[in-house]
Design brief:
membrane, 7-stranded mixed sheet, Rab GDP-dissociation inhibitor activity, acetylation, 3 domains, RabGDI, Guanine Nucleotide Dissociation Inhibitor, domain 1, FAD/NAD(P)-binding domain
């Protein structure tokens, strides 16, 4: 291990593995270490089921009704991929798709007045939706037509607004849309976690809704994809990419010290040896003194013997409970997957509810989600602290990722990856520059 590297990466979470792969492709000499014996760190997929019971300190073994333990791959941090989103673009560009198979998530739902409704995101769905009255459906359809026709580079499509100045609140007023429609548009289509966006210029929100619609257009069921065998396959795919380009991986490797000289990182000490480096990437757990706690996330992994009610018995779905529907400041998320994704025993479903903690009774905060899942066969509840780096890392050359948030998609994770890349290289992440030819995953996903 006594060697010199351009970049040392600590932790095998998805953020770290993607950056490791990208840096290796760019010709950097990379050493990647993790104190754990498995890939994924906090975002690992746990198998067999017995290991999940042990991780949550549940007594005894899983009942025989849950099938073989090896049939289970349970994500600790559940998320879906937007079909046209940033992570899929990174997968395609780096050709990591050759190691993965995807299925489309079968439905996207939003919670209103105690019930769930399919999220309308096309003009025809808007006209059939039970979320709105007849006149509001027409107004919402006009709004969707405006979004579909909008082109940032063509002022003729702006319909008299300035996307860089006009707030999203003004856009909703322009189309006379009510509170419930604003709720599902902002939180289930644009995927905002709070209502702060309403007072910001509308361009970002318009682009988010276009991303949702374009992702949905791939299949028509939902805009989301999920990898067979669980999310743990993603970091392993990028680890393989790094190895192809000369990256060195060491699991089960304790980190004794991050070696600094004159305020800059110069290496990592493990088992008495020092590997030297010019830059360091790590998750917050490896350098807590350079992070701050920015919140908590509660996640409840629920094993079910049935699909979620009122979803037409589909095998996978996302449900968003907008904050205003349950008098909260943050949304509640549910994502459900099943044996169809090779993550559960036959006839079983995994539904995971998550939200940002706001009170001293976090489990009560996700009760609206848990009520949708009843009856629940087994429940595993975790409360995780969220950390963010206290500085950019440009002086120390230590670049720390953010903890995973409560959202059920990877867009915020990809924003963090691009942010770290910019801090490391001084330039923005350029998808075109990374391109080495594409392998389309969509044929696999549509099965």
């Amino acid at each position: 291990m006594n060697d010199e590297y351009d970049v040392i990466v600590l932790g095998t979470g998805l953020t770290e593995c993607i950056l490791s792969g990208i840096m290796s492709v760019k010709g950097k000499k990379v050493l990647h270490m993790d104190r754990n014996s498995y890939y994924g760190a906090e975002s690992a997929s746990i198998t067999p089921l017995e290991d999940l019971y042990a991780r949550f300190n549940l007594p005894g073994k899983p009942p025989e009704s849950m099938g073989k333990g090896r049939d289970w791959n349970v994500d600790l941090v559940p998320k879906f991929l937007m079909a046209n989103g940033q992570l899929v673009r990174m997968l395609l560009i780096t050709q990591v798709t050759r190691y993965l198979d995807f299925k489309v998530v079968e439905g996207s739902y939003v919670y209103k007045a105690g019930k769930i409704h399919k999220v309308p995101s096309t003009e025809s769905e808007a006209l059939m939706s039970s979320l709105m009255g007849m006149f509001e459906k027409r107004r919402f359809k006009k709004f969707l037509v405006f979004i579909a026709n909008f082109d940032e580079n063509d002022p003729k499509t702006w319909e008299g607004i300035d996307p860089h100045k006009t707030t999203m609140k003004c856009i909703f007023q322009k189309y006379n849309l009510g509170g419930d429609v604003i709720d599902f548009t902002g939180h289930s289509l644009a995927l905002y976690r709070t209502d702060d966006y309403l007072n910001d210029p509308c361009l970002e929100t318009i682009n988010r809704i276009k991303l949702y619609s374009e992702s949905l257009a791939r299949y028509g069921k939902s805009p989301y994809l999920y990898p067979l065998y669980g999310l743990g396959e993603l970091p392993q795919g990028f680890a393989r990419l790094s190895a192809i380009y000369g990256g060195t991986y060491m699991l089960n490797k304790p980190v004794e010290e991050i070696v600094m000289e004159n305020g800059k990182v110069v290496g990592v000490k493990s088992e008495g040896e020092v590997a030297r480096c010019k830059q360091l990437i790590c998750d917050p757990s490896y350098f807590m003194s350079r992070t701050e706690k920015v919140g908590q996330v509660i996640r409840a992994i629920c094993i079910l013997s049935h699909p979620i009610s009122n979803t037409s018995d589909i095998n996978s779905c996302q449900i968003i409970i907008p904050q205003n529907q349950v008098n909260r400041k943050h949304d509640i998320y549910v994502c459900m997957i099943s044996s169809a994704h090779n993550v559960a025993a036959k006839g079983k479903y995994i539904a995971i509810a998550s939200t940002t903690v706001e009170t001293n009774d976090p489990e009560k905060e996700i009760k609206p989600a848990l009520d949708l899942l009843e009856p629940i066969e087994q429940k595993f509840v975790s409360i995780s602290d969220q950390y963010a780096p206290t500085d950019e890392g440009t002086e120390s050359q230590i670049f720390i990722s953010r903890s995973y948030d409560a959202t059920t998609h990877f867009e915020t994770t990809c924003d963090d990856i691009k942010n770290i890349y910019r801090r490391m290289t001084g330039s923005d992440f350029d998808f075109a520059e990374m391109e080495r030819g594409k392998k389309d995953i969509y044929g696999d996903a549509a099965e």
